[in-house]
Design goal:
globular, 5 helices, 20% strand, alpha/beta, 5-stranded mixed sheet, 147 residues, single chain
């Protein structure tokens, strides 16, 4: 069976969340959580709006997905996020036991990947996914406009 629901499709959905974030004056990061080819959570950064440094897109998505599933573990789920998770988000994803994380753009300054040790759960597959150029450009243009 051919399905239009692939990594690129879901990353585009995360990108739309990042655009919402940018339009609110937030750092443009978006995320979606998927299970069985269905989006169960959509989120974007809300740190400024909520005056909460933990209100990253990933954290919002984890909370929404756990609520949808009725439990704290995200087994069987995939997170699509436009920017590589930071250490805080990597820790939360570790505890959620999510199956897979797909991110578009690397975060050279704050991304969890800059550390030598693996910060994700040992059973979590972490892959660099599609739309790196588009997601990187969204971040670059956001910060260029701030300067």
């Amino acid at each position: 069976m051919i399905t239009p629901y692939n990594d690129e499709y879901f990353m585009k959905q995360a990108y739309l969340e990042a655009v919402k974030s940018r339009d609110l004056g937030e750092i443009p990061v978006g995320a979606v959580v998927v299970v069985n080819q269905q989006i169960i959570a959509r989120a974007h950064n809300l740190t400024e709006r909520l005056t909460d440094v933990t209100a990253h897109a990933e954290m919002q998505a984890i909370t929404a997905a756990a609520e949808f599933l009725g439990g704290k573990y995200l087994k069987g789920c995939t997170l699509y996020v436009t920017l590589e998770p930071c250490v805080m988000c990597a820790g939360a994803l570790y505890w959620s036991q999510i199956d897979k994380i797909v991110f578009a753009a690397r975060d050279e300054k704050r991304g969890a990947g800059r550390f030598q040790q693996d910060l994700y759960h040992p059973k979590t597959l972490v892959v660099k996914g599609p739309m790196e150029a588009e997601c990187s450009e969204l971040m670059t243009s956001f910060f260029a406009a701030k300067r």
